[in-house]
Predict the structure of Catechol 2,3-dioxygenase.
Amino acid sequence: MITSVGSVIIFVTDQQKALDFYTDTLGFEVRLDVTVPADQAPEVDSAVRWIEVAAPSTPTTLSLISRQFAQLRPGKGCGEFTDVNLLVDDMKATYEELNRKGVRFRVEPQHDPFGWRAEFVDPDGNGFNLIETAAGYRAM
């Protein structure tokens, strides 16, 4: 039986730039930042940096993985479709803060029967939803 979601992989072109965006701009915390030696990563024939970040107090992490791994999976890569929902308590305040920090929004906050939703992209074009659920609805 599945008990939880451990990690969602996000392919990025520059891991340090992505790490700065997710920690400094979005306020995530680093959960893991290690380098796997080349002899333990034969698929790519080089050392591999593995970074995992998460919103404070949540168990699920985002793995910020170099695009060299995307090349191992045809059709997958930076800026490809993602549909990761990030839950917020106050859509208006979160939107205004991220907008001030230069985050690029594809869809400004919109109200629907489930609550509030907005869409933004990271520096590589990976898309994310901000979700503020209406009372009575479960987290998406």
User: Anything to note?
Assistant: The first helix runs from residue 15 to 25. The first strand starts at residue 7 and ends at 12. The domain at 1-69 is CATH 3.10.180.10 (2,3-Dihydroxybiphenyl 1,2-Dioxygenase; domain 1).
